[in-house]
Write a structure and sequence with these properties.
236 residues, Rossmann fold
């Protein structure tokens, strides 16, 4: 008797801690993962090398990198010549939308992933958004995920013909420490990942941007040492 083929799912893999975790979760839940990453002109392009490492480590059916130059309109410290904020206080991290927000990024990325999923015959998307340690980004909230699911239903042949779309955001209510614990239980090697917004030319993390601060805090709260390589002693 032939066993059923695993259901395909498109997983957004940036190369960071969260996306490595959701890739592991998708595999653990029995999906056949197709990974998609974006070369969008980000200043931290080292994350694409990390995405490749993560995909090779955890195993995917296929990994594609889509060129999409968001530097064309800038508007973010990640896609324009704007300084990345460093050493912000807890109060600052919890207030407002920081300049590292890339306008409509997750909407754009999920829309592209949606198109590929429809071609693959997949109706499941995985994204590593988080509404706890999310630095105030509006496109990391449960309301956004719910709205995009409705958009997918209305905007695709698959949805109009009655196949429900599932946008999985399994990390959305977890703390960074809980995400790390979950990933480790699934065999994620976080030494392969890259989270820093402003790495040095060798790809070492700065230890001071919002992403580094949240990552380091997560490892500390989990009682662990971050395996990422840092320029300074921030990880000590």
């Amino acid at each position: 008797m032939t066993s059923a083929r695993p259901r395909p799912a498109v997983v957004l893999v940036s190369g960071g801690l969260d996306s490595a975790t959701i890739l592991a979760i998708a595999r653990a839940e029995g999906f056949e993962p197709y990974a998609i990453s974006f070369d969008y002109g980000q200043r931290h392009r080292f994350e694409l090398e990390a995405a490749n490492r993560v995909c090779q480590s955890l195993g995917v059916k296929r990994h594609i990198v889509v060129p999409l130059d968001l530097r064309a309109f800038g508007g973010s410290a990640l896609t324009a010549d704007i300084d990345v904020p460093k050493d912000r206080s807890d109060e600052q991290l919890a207030t407002g939308i920081p300049i590292t927000y890339v306008p409509a990024r997750n909407t754009i990325f999920l829309s592209v992933a949606l198109g590929w999923a429809e071609v693959l015959g997949a109706s499941d998307l995985f994204i590593g958004v988080n509404a706890v340690d999310y630095s105030g980004y509006p496109d990391c909230r449960p309301e956004f995920i719910a709205a995009f699911r409705q958009l997918a239903r209305l905007a695709t042949k698959t949805g109009v013909e009655g196949t429900p779309w599932h946008v999985h955001a399994p990390l959305i209510t977890l703390s960074k420490a809980d995400i790390i614990r979950r990933g480790l239980s699934l065999g994620v090697d976080y030494g392969l990942t890259h989270s820093c917004y402003d790495p040095d030319p060798q790809g070492r993390s700065c230890g001071h941007c919002d992403s580094c601060q949240l990552r380091l805090r997560g490892f500390a709260e989990a009682g662990l040492t971050d395996p990422a390589l840092y320029v300074t002693s921030a990880a000590s």
